[in-house]
Amino acid sequence: MKSLTYCFSAFAATAFFLGGLFPHAASAQTNYPSRSIRLVIPWSVGGSTDVIGRLLAESMSKDLGTSIVVDNKPGATGTIGYANVAKAEPDGYTMLMGTNSTFAMAPHYYKDLPFNLEKDFRPLGMVASNPQILSVNPSVPVKSVEEFIAYLKQNPGKLAFASAGYGGSSHLAMELFLAMSGTEMLHVPYKAGAPAMQSLMAGDTKAAFVDISIGEATIRSGAIRALGSSGRNAMASLPDIPPIAEAGLPGFESVTSFGLFVPKGTSDSVVQRLNQALKFAMHDEAVVKRLASFGFELESGNPDEYPAYAAAEKNKWGDVIAKRGIKIQ
Length: 329
Known about the structure:
Elements lengths: L3 H18 L1 H8 L6 E5 L6 H17 L3 E5 L6 H8 L7 E6 H6 L11 H4 E16 L8 H10 L5 E4 L5 H13 L4 E4 L3 H10 L4 E5 H10 L3 E5 L25 E9 L4 H15 L2 H9 L3 E2 L7 H19 L5
Parallel strand pairs: 1-2, 1-3, 5-6, 5-7
Antiparallel strand pairs: 3-9, 4-7, 4-8, 4-9, 4-10
C-alpha cells in the first residue's frame, strides 16, 4: 500500500490536472465548508458502522458549522458505497465511513472492483475498533468457548451461524474461529448486523459474532448468550466476558475497525479541516461516552497510521480467505 507521504506528494504533482478535471473543487474550498456534507455509510441502518457514523456526523457538524447528511448505501460487503464515493468530486463534500471488512477483506474475493482502494481514496483518520462477541442462542447447551468447541465437534456441520454479510467481518471472524478450532458450521448471511441479530434471537441460526455496539442490550437481557470477546482484552462494558484467546482458543483476534475517507484528490487544506473536525468529535465528551457504552475503542484519528494498519489487515484476512476457500456466491 502506498504511504500517506506518497499520497501528499502525488497530490502536489497533480493539483493542476485535478483542478482542471474538477473546477468546482478549487472555488468550493475557498469558503469551505459552504454547504452540507454527505457521509456515505456502506451498510444498512442500525449496524455498528451506522451507529458510529451518525454519532461522528452529529458532532463534526458542530465544529464545521454545517450539516453532515448520512447516506446509507449497503450491499456487496460495503463495496457499493465505496464505489459511490470513489466517483464523487474530491471537493470535501463527500466522505466515506469505511471498515476493514471492505478495505482489507473485499479485495481478496472481488476481482473486478469498480474502484481501487489505494488510488481512489484518501484517509482522514482511523476512528475506532469494535470487538465482536461470540454469541449463541440460549437453546444451545453451552456456556463457554471450550464447551462450544466440544459441542461443535460432536455435531459437525449441524449448526447454522448468522453473519452481517457474506465475506464481511462477522463472517470471517467465524471462519477464523472454525479454522482455528477445527470445527464446521453452516453459514447463513444477512444484509446487515440487525437482521443477523434477529435471526440469532429467534433461533433461526444458533451462533454469530455480534458487534458489541448492537449486541450488548440483547446479551444483558438474556436473549442471546455471550461466550467470548474477539478482542485482545476484556471489554470495559462487559468485563465478565473473557477474550476468546484466553477462554479456549489461544491467539484468536478479530475486530471491526472504522475509518473516515474522502475521494483521492481532495486538497490538503480540506483534509486538514475535516481531520480537525474528526478529532473534535473524538474528544467530544458526549461522543466518547456514547461510543464507550457501545464498546467502541477509540483510535488516535491520525491518518498516518492507516497505511501500515490496512496492509497488515489485508494480509491477515487474505490468508483466512485463501485457507477457507471463501468465494463470493
